[in-house]
Write a structure and sequence with these properties.
With 356 residues, this protein is an alpha/beta fold. It folds into two domains: 232 residues, Rossmann fold (3-Layer(aba) Sandwich); 91 residues, no CATH class. The protein has eleven helices and 14 strands. The strands form four sheets. Strands 1, 2, 3, 4, 7, 8, 9 and 10 form an eight-stranded mixed sheet that branches. The chain has a two-stranded antiparallel sheet with strand order 5-6. Strands 11-12 form a two-stranded antiparallel ribbon. α4 packs parallel to α5. The longest helix is centred in the last third of the chain and has 14 residues. It starts with 24 loop residues before the first strand and ends in a 5-residue tail after the last helix.
Length: 356
């Protein structure tokens, strides 16, 4: 049953969606399976193409989106291309979600900075914490009206803040004005049944920014963009199914059986037992939105992992999306929720693009 209480329903299908394509053009980098692409489409934008390094993700993207332009290669080489079509030099929005595990609070963080890592199978090794700057290099070349870059909230914590300062400086060198504080947004406040916090850097070209300037204090100004969302939270009980669930692995099952009633994270159970493990394994509270999908089976209800159908709703993915042979939890976990992007994109159009 579709939910009509929110601006963009989290339960939806591609076959019934009305993609108007009348709000502007978008190109998506680090496109993965197309989470952000679907968000822009829901908001009325025309997503003309993508860049992705993973052949399996590109296969899924093409199957579901049939892009006009697609580039299967690292962004390090893509940004150097001199044969790109004119459409990419006249974009309204350049979108990108650089792989962010180096900054995740659940990862190794500083220990991994500056190291070559594989983001997943099928990809070449890359230094993940520099991909953001490769993306800004591409923006400098293409000069879209607006750049939207998404990352984990861990980018705003600890020593990673030094990267934020560099991000600001690189955007300025590329010809963009940037709001002083990146937008820290929670998907559960935006019509997505998932507590997923993400940072969004939204930059506008300097020659357009003067139309939207606001004073931050007596010394600073920035383009005004209101991204405050307060949609009613969606508890998981609205769509949890009574189907038979996939069994937990032995180690997870052991902790599940030993947990206390108020322990919703198996890491807490593990720590109480004198160990430190399983901190990403979460027990859903039916009265509240889901915890974050991580890309692996980590969400548990009624002594089993969530079903694919439930995961699609939690991620606001369309029910008829073709995942090919990829795990639903991986694509949903690695993607920005489409409804989250749709909310942001609709405000960018309403407050900026429609007035340019």
């Amino acid at each position: 049953m579709l939910d009509n209480k929110h601006k963009f329903p989290y339960e939806w299908t591609l076959k019934d969606a009305n993609f108007t394509k009348d709000k502007g053009t978008v190109f998506s980098c680090f496109s993965c399976g197309g989470g952000s692409t679907m968000g822009y489409k829901l908001a009325g934008f025309d997503v003309v193409g993508c860049n992705e390094i993973d052949p399996k993700m590109m296969e899924v993207y093409k199957k579901n989106h049939n892009p006009k332009f697609s580039y299967l290669e690292p962004i390090q080489t893509f940004k150097l291309r001199k044969d790109l079509p004119k459409e990419l030099y006249n974009l309204d929005i350049l979108d990108g979600s650089p792989p962010c595990s180096s900054f995740s609070m659940a990862g190794n963080r500083e220990k991994d900075w500056g190291k070559d890592k594989k983001f997943r199978e099928g990809q070449s090794k890359q230094i993940l914490d520099t991909l953001f700057f490769d993306f800004i290099d591409l923006a400098k070349e293409l000069q879209p009206k607006i750049v939207v870059a998404e990352n984990v909230d861990g980018l705003m914590k600890g020593n990673a803040k030094e990267y934020v300062i560099k991000i600001f400086n690189e955007f300025k060198k590329a010809g963009y004005s940037l709001k002083i504080h990146p937008y820290l947004l929670d998907a559960s406040k935006m019509g997505v049944p998932q507590k997923r916090k993400r940072v969004f850097f939204i930059a506008i070209k300097n020659d357009l920014a003067d139309n939207f300037i606001e004073s931050l204090d007596m010394f600073q100004t920035a383009p005004k963009l209101n991204l405050r969302f307060s949609e009613k939270e969606i508890p998981t009980k609205l769509f949890l199914e009574g189907l038979e669930r996939k069994k937990l692995t032995n180690s997870v099952q052991k902790l599940y059986d030993l947990r206390k009633e108020d322990e919703f994270c198996l890491g807490e159970t593990s720590e109480r037992l004198g160990k430190r493990s399983h901190f990403n394994y979460m027990i859903l509270n039916p009265e509240k939105p889901s915890y974050t999908v991580t890309g692996k089976e980590n969400l548990i209800h009624n002594n089993g992992y969530l079903t694919d159908s439930e995961l699609k709703k939690i991620g606001s993915y369309p029910d008829d999306y073709n995942f090919l042979k990829n795990k639903v939890c991986y694509l949903v976990g690695m993607s920005v929720p489409p409804v989250m992007v749709a909310q942001i994109a609709s405000e960018i159009y309403k407050q900026w693009l429609s007035k340019i």
